[in-house]
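Kindly review these tokens for lecture notes.

. . .
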Amino acid sequence: MAAPKPKVLQLPAGMPDNAAIAASYDHCRRIARAAARNFYYGFMLLPAAKRDALCALYAFMRGVDDISDEPGTIEDKRRRQSERRAEMDKGLAGGQDDPVWPALRHAVSTYGIPPRYLHDLISGAEMDLTISSYQTFDALREYCYRVAGTVGLCCLYVFGFSDPHAPDLAEKLGIAFQLTNILRDVPRDYAMGRVYLPREDLVRFQCDARQLGDANASAAIAPLVQFEAERAWQFYREGWPLLALVSEDSRAALWAMARIYSGILEKIETRHFAVLAPPPPRLSTPEKVWILIRARMGWLGERNALRNSDRGRGRAGGAVGSHSAR
């Protein structure tokens, strides 16, 4: 299905000139190249304008995330996030105090990205300042929507779409990516005082949260990790039809992103769900490059992207159930 063309940007009063926008995009590209270890590989497969738009979005989101993770008191971080929200509103309205704003404003205006997604993302970062654990998966899902589903939705507007079901699918893929990150980073998050695995699941599998900080406890929590991995696979499967709904020039990028993140989940399975002992499960640079080559060659089927998603994996603790649309 044909995707809507991006709006032709009409520069309103106060919009920075082309030179300022170009300099801002260059700044955002440097941030993305340095920090977006997985996402940037997908960026590389997009047309230049769309790639730059995602770099602008990433640079903004990276700044929000860094506030929550850097040293400082909770009160100071909450103040800084509140200031960042106000600065974003000012930046989208024409302020130029931050080198990210001209490019972000240009991208949001060009692709019609709803600013509410950026506000929701900041709200997710604020949750990390006051919430260190989640009682239920429903509560965790809300967090995943805010910090990752919003990213999927912003990317969707850059990719281009016209089908009304596309936003729901983009959100689900974003949540799948975040659940993968959570499983990859269990010991790192525990060291920061955060336990994202739902308490109800810890109880279900007779695990103690303190085990998440013990590299020797991987076998003990493996059934729990397997259960959460199957939950992530389910979101991948539900979101995967998005590939056919985005603009054709963006499909290779989306395929590559999904393949890289689902590849991390495969690594976790290969390690028999042992996520506590170093090193964390990741794809090597050659593996990522091979994914890009395959994407450029047009190998974009689900079988190639989610190659393990439909195999006969035992579901620890039974089925996880379906997930309703937001």
In short: DSSP finds 14 helices and no strands in the chain. The first helix runs from residue 18 to 35. The domain at 15-113 is CATH 1.10.600.10 (Farnesyl Diphosphate Synthase). Residues 168 and 325 are 6 Å apart (CA to CA).
